[in-house]
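Late entry, evening session. Most of the bench is empty. Finally got around to the prediction I had been postponing all week. Sequence below, unchanged from the version circulated by S.P.
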Amino acid sequence: MQKSTIPFLLINCVLAIVLISCGSVTKNYSPKKLDKTSYKAPYFSNPKTDYVYKTNITVYGNEMSGIFIAKKINDTVHRIVFTTEFGNKLLDFEISEKSFKVNSIVSELDRKILINTLREDFRLLLKKEYLIQEQFEKESDNIYKSADGKRDNYLFLSKKDQKLEKVIHASQTKEKITLLFSSENNIFAEKIQIIHQNIKLKIELNYFKSE
């Protein structure tokens, strides 16, 4: 598999969208009476913390690596910076539920479809507040449905320890994006995966432990 620290392959690869079909997210789960009407996601919430992750992006068989940094700069806005492993800045965004600002981006990545894809990914990753409309369950998880514009988010919380383990962003008939979280304490996610179902794009974040 080809590897690169220069993410310019992302441009043309993201343009090649391949649609797939799948059924409703909850078709195999049992409805359940609501036990909450809202939920606050625990991750990326501490304004005193710089969330730094080694990042690996796989897109259409090509891999690239870098450093992802997220910081909460006020009650609603996070700043996102992505660099090469050598510290060269590739992009710098400020993002909230209702706003999005590009502080800087290298010209090779300055493509509308790429920026829109990353904006959707990062907004979902950093989303804090969820209003719950429906609840479902399976053997090990409670699943909460929350409206998100014309789509829905499905939050998977483990019954054992109430950890947020997964978020699925979906239309009525198709899963679009899946976020997977590995967390020891349900405060900080040590590993995160962002997986697209309609394009061959996967982003993996691993907590960067400084020596």
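Two things to note before I forget:
Residues 2-207 form a domain with the outer membrane lipoprotein receptor (LolB), chain A fold (CATH 2.50.20).
The radius of gyration is 17 Å.
Will write this up properly tomorrow.
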